[in-house]
Amino acid sequence: MSSTFHGNRISLTVFGQSHSEAIGMTLDGLPAGIAVDTDALQQFLMRRAPGRHEWSTPRTEEDAPEFLSGLKDGFTCGAPLTAIIRNRNTRSRDYSMLKVLPRPGHADLTAEIKYHGYQDYAGGGHFSGRLTAPLCIAGGIILQELERQGISIHARITAIAGIEDPSPFDMAPEDMEFPVLDAAAKKAMLEKIARAKAEGDSVGGVIECMACNLPAGIGEPMFDGLENQIARLVFAVPAVKGIEFGAGFSAARLRGSENNDAYCLENGNIRTCTNHAGGILGGISNGMPLLFRAAIKPTPSIAKPQQSVNLKTRQIQELTVSGRHDPCIVPRAVPVMEAVTALALYDLI
Amino acid sequence: MSSTFHGNRISLTVFGQSHSEAIGMTLDGLPAGIAVDTDALQQFLMRRAPGRHEWSTPRTEEDAPEFLSGLKDGFTCGAPLTAIIRNRNTRSRDYSMLKVLPRPGHADLTAEIKYHGYQDYAGGGHFSGRLTAPLCIAGGIILQELERQGISIHARITAIAGIEDPSPFDMAPEDMEFPVLDAAAKKAMLEKIARAKAEGDSVGGVIECMACNLPAGIGEPMFDGLENQIARLVFAVPAVKGIEFGAGFSAARLRGSENNDAYCLENGNIRTCTNHAGGILGGISNGMPLLFRAAIKPTPSIAKPQQSVNLKTRQIQELTVSGRHDPCIVPRAVPVMEAVTALALYDLI
Amino acid sequence: MSSTFHGNRISLTVFGQSHSEAIGMTLDGLPAGIAVDTDALQQFLMRRAPGRHEWSTPRTEEDAPEFLSGLKDGFTCGAPLTAIIRNRNTRSRDYSMLKVLPRPGHADLTAEIKYHGYQDYAGGGHFSGRLTAPLCIAGGIILQELERQGISIHARITAIAGIEDPSPFDMAPEDMEFPVLDAAAKKAMLEKIARAKAEGDSVGGVIECMACNLPAGIGEPMFDGLENQIARLVFAVPAVKGIEFGAGFSAARLRGSENNDAYCLENGNIRTCTNHAGGILGGISNGMPLLFRAAIKPTPSIAKPQQSVNLKTRQIQELTVSGRHDPCIVPRAVPVMEAVTALALYDLI
Amino acid sequence: MSSTFHGNRISLTVFGQSHSEAIGMTLDGLPAGIAVDTDALQQFLMRRAPGRHEWSTPRTEEDAPEFLSGLKDGFTCGAPLTAIIRNRNTRSRDYSMLKVLPRPGHADLTAEIKYHGYQDYAGGGHFSGRLTAPLCIAGGIILQELERQGISIHARITAIAGIEDPSPFDMAPEDMEFPVLDAAAKKAMLEKIARAKAEGDSVGGVIECMACNLPAGIGEPMFDGLENQIARLVFAVPAVKGIEFGAGFSAARLRGSENNDAYCLENGNIRTCTNHAGGILGGISNGMPLLFRAAIKPTPSIAKPQQSVNLKTRQIQELTVSGRHDPCIVPRAVPVMEAVTALALYDLI
Q1: Dihedral angle sign, alpha carbons of residues C233, C234, C238, C240
Q2: Taking the complete model, does pTM exceed 0.90, yes or no?
Q3: Which residues of C are less than 8 Å from D4 in CB distance?
């Protein structure tokens, strides 16, 4: 049912298109009495907002949510929580070209096929990365609540354009805008982005997300395990093409005796000596930090000319997309990862 | 809700524990009139069944499903389809050790915490790999139906214990029991497995799965895209720790201009020149082969002694698991991947 | 999950409180290309709107929906459809009394218990009858689509304050505002309402709803039959306290030989000679008109003093609610019945 | 999705046909550690079982559930709980007549249309009243758990064949097999049943169900209120054609001042002086006894000849059903009402 996540505790509906009147979300199932710090939420949303860095698109939406319902005097009231963000530039530009000349790497063609011409193609419509803003409103509220319960979720960039950050994820990144722990790697990444930008191109990367102090015993067997649930929500972010938990694909190269996390004792508590499992066994949290990585493909929107096919003439045609775009969406995707992780965990707690 | 998948078209419930009276599944939502070839299904189940190869556990369950309901004269009748497999060796062995000495890499500890002592710990209970048999019953039936609709799903092994098969996935594997396309890689993999077995250890690997002739336009935006749905179901298989679609994690290293699949024409049909997207754009199929890879961790069950913690004495204790185990579960996981992919796709078609 | 209906084809979320910034709804799962006649929709909403008749509350909200997403050039675009209605009088009145002195027959007390003080008590909050406006937006759109498919849904009043309309439901009512077929019954009902109004009291009634030309074969066995589904949605309307299909409670007094609808032929088509089943057998439509009646309790809001208990002082206290209220909500509930019936049927077609 | 109830806490799947290998159910979502007294459960199932009274069908199924999974040493283990009942007389009789000559009042015709000939028509297939046995297994287990939590659920017969029991429901009925409080009414009802039986006919009735000590605050607004939820599950019972809560349809005849339940104090606790609301306000329990009545139509299976239409010849044809049937299903439906009520409440607690 497309854009409604119907979970165990919460239902989340994300609505809106890139250039519709508004985008927004409804979060249903929250108990009454959850505090919402709208200032802190706005700060969080700014990390995702475009137009503030050399690496991001200059579209200058404010992304200031308006709460329509569900909130009373700063607390949830038990009724569904709805917040919207008005789109400023509705229909300002002519996007009709996208209807006949689909952009490679975008959902233009699949939307045309699925919605047989009725789709809102302007700016990618409902498939626009802009729809991650409502995800961040929902997730940002939940992040605050989890923090209150002692559960903290942080994400960082581990790779951009092939440059990897070798640092272990043992601290929350200081620079929340471009959260790379290793200074040299960070510098190299920024250079890669600048070069891609100069060439009208884009780069991708890998984001690592960690949840600390998640109690052991969270998650369900089979279809509602932590991995199922997190993966299901992480793939709601358009650019994600892969996810791995703990050692992930590396585990496939290890022996069982190497990959199994031996049990040990720490201050009388049972822990594992390593964390190849990423904090999850049988879909259920084991008390170790929950850890996963998501692969973010390079933004498909680039200035370089690309080959497409004209749907009307059925001829190959070169496509040049005007307007300036994100050369690297990875930094702005970091808070989105934190947001969807928060939603995934909260729904199972 | 743990073990019930509540999808768009179908509901699937998987029940049973490793040593309960039976394991089984109910598939609800199938239209009436779907043919079920039980002989072909049995063949399919044999590919997953243990005890038939040097690389698999010698547990000799027959895995012959008994259909309790939903089937009439070889066709679905519209009512929920339930099939069970009786467990032969119910409670034959003493598993009480697992309750106090959790096996590393298994769900013994997390189940103990989640179910506070009431879990069925024998043989891993509901977390046992044995529960993939009911997944194969459900998926095997759907595979037959998809095949009838012209959609074929095949999986193959691309890596075991670090040995990679460099072949492109351009043909269905002939050897369905150990489906590796490259003969040299296959030989090397088998050697790795034999060595691990000899040392009481295990190895993991990577499975690649492809769906051909899936019509364009399948999948929903946001939470019910093909990636969300497939990931959600693939992670129901206990050993999976990662999944990537198309170029996956490699895409994160490419430029947008490299990763975007340019559109071209093939016999008048719109295709993409490359398939880095794995056949999915915006969560929706684009008519190219759907392609993903799943990372399978080495079986946690090994004969080598491992370090655990005794939950009663709260002391570190060496654990030696008796009985013979799968040195490599990867070949038997291949049909399981096909099964869950079939379920994921069918639910969205 | 409270206010999200997660159906077979559609998901419907209704949000808002009586005095929040806005009320609204998101309808997800609609295919692209469904026409929405907003003028006709506005006409439909007017039938529910307050303030236009002697029998309704003078609150003069315009109930003009603003579409935020999902609609493009008058057609659905495949993305979730969100529409809101701004509340004019947000917080204009002092409702704090409702927090300590719950109104009998309202949800004031149960909300206080459930949301432990955080509920939005103003005007009944999320429990207000005002929330039937978003139901009518969603249902009104679906009514248009069903009409296009040849399925028409009409409701009428069969009883108010004990006055019954003996007419058979063999025609759509002309007067859509007060749809009673029998003129004498109508007159008597209006007198009953006027008298109740004069005495600061209210009256209830019974609404009968019929769907014609619903194809045979719609509905699912067990939990998703037509009766389950319609009942589930009809009870979303706050004032409903009972529902019966076809002969309903009268069927309980009949013999099987009387109640069973014998089969007959009509122009070669199989019909039933009577329609005690209300068009439903085994939860599935049989091609006869679908028929049900819903009992609407008298509006709990009355001007007469009532006995309540002060939650702070724990003393019995007389409650007098100021403001003018609906003496009879039944006429305005008629389009709501049509709306929820349309949603229930569409979800199963 | 037909026969899977996907609730807030639990998922329930009911499978089987009247003459399939087995009927059964899977209850998923139960926490580990819930005691299941299988002897008490068997006693409960006997109240529903046929063949034990003059008023019931002589089919002598034992209805002894076999637990396949989810139960360990008398307690739930956290995994899905599956129980089945083997059908003894599978395909013993020739039912092929039902395929061409649909029985009035049964789902024979609607199943034929919906499943276009593939349905399992023997004995009504999945639509058979026999499927209430698995509902009773699931509900019987939950009844035990609710009882442990202090919540008791009892149902009684208030009317059969027009004979009404005027007694207030202020005590649990002693005679669990034919639970009528008033002795004279009981006698008259039995006579009505005997007469109908003698004439090859059947009678219906009304069942009243009450839940005591349900905590206040249970239920959700809009679509998951107590009324929505109970109605949804009660209509899973084939013979039910109506449901009303508290004063129900009578409330529609009252003034607001009469129907509103004034608040009062009882030992310092807030209660209502009357209980026209049936313990529910705004879909949420208010601490008063929850009360509803369900209309049970007369069993459609009768010995009297009836008019049907031959689907092959398209001619009107007289139908005489051989075999002996329930002249009155109402007493056996009483435990079923208790069972579904338990499931509905437990899912929202």
Answers
A1: negative
A2: yes
A3: 223
Query: Residue A77 and residue C15: Cβ atoms within 8 Å?
Result: no
d(CA C254, CA D196): 11
| Residues above pLDDT 90, as percent of chain D | 86
**Pairwise CA distance, residues C291 & C247, whole Å:** 9
Is residue A59 scored above 60 in pLDDT? no
Other chains touching C, judged by 3 or more CB pairs under 8 Å: A, B, D
Average pLDDT over residues B307-329: 90
Q: Name the phi and psi angles at A265, rounded to 5.
A: -115, 140
Report the chain D residue with the minimal C-alpha distance to residue B119: D77
Pure H helices in chain A: 38-48, 96-100, 108-114, 132-148, 183-198, 226-234, 256-259, 330-348
Any CB–CB contact under 8 A between C104 and chain B? no
Judged by a CB distance cut-off of 8 A, whether residue C66 touches chain A is yes
For domain D4-348, give the CATH number.
3.60.150.10
Of C219, C251, C314, which is closest to D265 when you measure between CB atoms? C314
Asked if residues C342 and C139 have their Cβ atoms less than 8 Å apart, the reply is: yes
- A217 interaction partners in chain D (CB closer than 8 Å): none
Note whether ipTM > 0.90 here. Answer: yes
A273 in D contact zone (CB under 8 Å): no
Nearest to C236 among D217, D228, D278 (CB): D228
Chain B / chain C CB contacts < 8 angstroms: 4
CB contact under 8 A, A68 and C4: no
Is pLDDT above 70 for B60? no
In tens, the pLDDT along B70-81 reads: 999 999 999 999
CA B65 to chain centre: 18
Query: Of the candidates C3, C104, C245, which has its C-beta nearest D221's C-beta?
Result: C3
Distance linking the first and last C-alpha atoms of chain A? 24
Q: What is the mean pLDDT of residues C195-202?
A: 95
Two structure tokens written together for D267: 């030992």
Residues in chain B: 349
Ranges assigned E (strand) in chain D: 4-6, 11-15, 22-28, 66-69, 71-72, 75-76, 81-86, 152-160, 163-164, 205-212, 240-245, 263-266, 269-272, 280-281, 284-285, 290-296, 306-310, 315-319
Residue C158 belongs to what H/E stretch? strand C152-160
User: Which residues 142-181 of chain B have a CB within 8 Å of chain D?
Assistant: none
What are the φ and ψ backbone dihedral angles of B116, each rounded to 5 degrees? Answer: 35, 55
Contact flag A69-C22 (C-beta cutoff 8 Å) = yes
